[in-house]
């Protein structure tokens, strides 16, 4: 859902993770609350949900259907805006007051809240565990902390390689021949020589692309609780980016707006990013219809994984709810039903994390914008291959440290292993975790 998941890290939560007292939230800590399965009977009462942007639009559209099926229930959806969302959520968790029944959380936020406010979110394992095999396993892992499920996955963000058909044709490059990153580098050099365009856009001041490549290799910032940003996989990911930079194949642009503008201006021939990019292209660049195609993400090895993840969200129930059963009934109805997930894909372009939805004929429709290609089927087939990785409450701190390491390598020419070794030591010092993995 949220295309800036690796781009913006909330100040409130980062601050919480680097100071004392947050775990208790200002009140005595207690065991993680659990949902007691309903014994039946009609649902009733009002629930309030916090969300933002397209997710809030989807919730507002779907809520009346749930109310119609459950007379006596009222669902209030509040669009709290993205910019201050996590500040509000953190304050509510810390004070143990002011939160609604249900909140939207991006995947990367869940472990931090679960670890630092163990009493703040409801453990859904008892009622949602039966659905585990029906969801994107990377998403399920992201919503799990300490063996407890703190949110039900909503949308997935499988990553592929978007490419400009016209530029590839001009350079005489067959996109289907790109199997590995080595192939992509050779193709990029050929395209740049023929067209003057670099391979893809990347903000070299942050670790977003590094994070995506690291997950493709099956790893996060931590592994087995240890700091793993200097592992062989991490060094391999950053070395790839340095190779691309050294060959002048990266178009350096700042942030989300820079990537959108550069793509619109045709500064790069490809973009390795998630399925939600289709909505950005069709919505903001209609004049480029027919010029894009998509292939799986290049692998590090010929038989390697050809996707990753970048984004996605889930719905969590707060311990402050006074209508737990109705809150869970709504979350279950919205996210664990094929028809509802397909409806949100069709109308709001929220790519389902619920696997049964991916069998719907909607995903087999050709898309004129992409030259008639069945782009959604390509991404749907990738979802099961997204590598699950370990997320922790210390990821936010690690990401801040990695900004310096990655930018030093890509902008100043630092050695990848040396830079990552320094980063690992800094993260270990800040978090108290040992280096390893």
From TrEMBL:
Record keywords: Cell membrane, Lipoprotein, Membrane, Palmitate, Signal
Keyword Lipoprotein: yes
PROSITE patterns the record matches: PROKAR_LIPOPROTEIN
Signal peptide annotation: 1-23
Name of the protein in question: ABC transporter substrate-binding protein
Species this chain originates from: Streptosporangium carneum
């Amino acid at each position: 859902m949220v295309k800036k998941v690796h781009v913006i890290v909330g100040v409130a939560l980062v601050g919480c993770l680097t100071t004392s007292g947050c775990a208790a939230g200002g009140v005595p800590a207690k065991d993680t609350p659990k949902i007691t399965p309903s014994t039946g009977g009609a649902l009733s009462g009002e629930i309030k949900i916090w969300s933002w942007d397209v997710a809030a639009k989807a919730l507002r559209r779907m809520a009346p259907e749930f109310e119609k099926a459950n007379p006596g229930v009222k669902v209030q959806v509040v669009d709290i805006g993205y910019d201050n969302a996590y500040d509000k959520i953190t304050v509510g968790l810390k004070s143990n007051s002011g939160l609604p029944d249900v909140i939207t959380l991006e995947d990367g936020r869940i472990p931090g809240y679960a670890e630092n406010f163990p009493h703040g979110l409801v453990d859904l394992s008892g009622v949602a565990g039966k659905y585990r095999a029906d969801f994107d396993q990377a998403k399920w892992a992201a919503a799990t902390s300490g063996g407890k499920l703190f949110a039900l996955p909503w949308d997935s963000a499988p990553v592929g390689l978007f490419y400009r058909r016209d530029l590839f044709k001009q350079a005489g490059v067959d996109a289907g021949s790109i199997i590995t990153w080595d192939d992509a580098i050779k193709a990029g050099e050929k395209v740049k020589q023929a067209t003057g365009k670099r391979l893809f856009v990347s903000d070299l001041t942050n670790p977003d692309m590094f994070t995506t490549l690291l997950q493709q290799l099956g790893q996060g910032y931590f592994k087995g609780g240890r700091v793993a940003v200097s592992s062989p996989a991490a060094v391999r990911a950053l070395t790839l980016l340095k190779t691309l930079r050294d060959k002048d194949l990266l178009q350096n642009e700042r942030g989300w707006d820079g990537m959108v503008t550069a793509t619109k201006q045709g500064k790069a021939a490809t973009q390795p990013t998630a399925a939600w990019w289709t909505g950005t292209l069709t919505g903001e660049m209609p004049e480029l219809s027919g010029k894009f195609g998509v292939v799986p993400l290049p692998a590090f090895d010929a038989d390697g994984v050809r996707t990753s993840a970048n984004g996605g969200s889930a719905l969590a129930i707060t311990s402050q709810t006074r209508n737990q059963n109705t809150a869970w009934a709504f979350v279950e109805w919205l996210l664990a039903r094929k028809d509802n997930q397909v409806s949100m894909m069709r109308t709001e372009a929220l790519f389902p994390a619920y696997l049964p939805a991916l069998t719907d004929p909607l995903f087999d429709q050709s898309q004129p914008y992409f030259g008639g290609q069945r782009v959604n089927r390509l991404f749907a087939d990738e979802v099961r291959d997204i590598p699950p990785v370990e997320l922790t409450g210390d990821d936010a701190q690690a990401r801040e440290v990695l900004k310096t390491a990655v930018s030093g390598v890509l902008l100043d020419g630092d050695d990848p292993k040396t830079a990552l070794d320094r980063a690992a030591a800094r993260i270990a010092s800040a978090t108290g975790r040992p280096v390893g993995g």
